Predict the structure.
Amino acid sequence: MAQRTLLIREFHYPQDYESAERLWKDMEKGVHFSRSDVPAEIEKKLTRDPDLFLVAESDGELVGTVIGGFDGRRGMVYHLAVAQAHRRRGVAEVLMREIEKRLVDRGCIRALLLVHADNVEARGLYEKQDWVLLADNVVYSKDIA
Ligand SMILES: CC(C)(COP(=O)(O)OP(=O)(O)OC[C@H]1O[C@@H](n2cnc3c(N)ncnc32)[C@H](O)[C@@H]1OP(=O)(O)O)[C@@H](O)C(=O)NCCC(=O)NCCS
């Protein structure tokens, strides 16, 4: 079988939006399409951090995403998603390595991410890449606008 080419690149708006929206909506778990994912919110994020919004492209098809954030103290990782037909080929590992590198380039020394306790695939990946479980912590959130 011919080798597929995998390209990790920055998200292009608006060209990539439809494919990313479809990918996120197709996720069976782990990534849930929310009001943070509508075009205006994606544009807001890209204006601030164009270098921390990445896609994986396989033979021209958008097959993965990851979004990073850095507030000057902590990094965050969001929306790691890989299309089902492209899983278990290391796409997520490559996306994670690249987003970590870019966070480091921004000056970030410690990053956090949220993962559902039952998400064995994602947890396997993060542990393989040396992310440490903060088992004594709980997470709060609030819609403040
Ligand atoms: C989690 C996810 C991003 C992994 O993507 P992927 O490209 O298939 O992952 P990779 O091929 O890079 O796998 C890397 C490691 O992750 C772990 N992993 C991935 N899929 C796994 C599975 N089905 N079962 C157990 N471990 C798994 C393994 O440790 C794997 O390393 P290995 O292949 O050497 O065993 C993908 O399953 C996905 O999109 N899930 C739905 C969305 C989601 O849950 N995102 C995470 C939000 S926190």
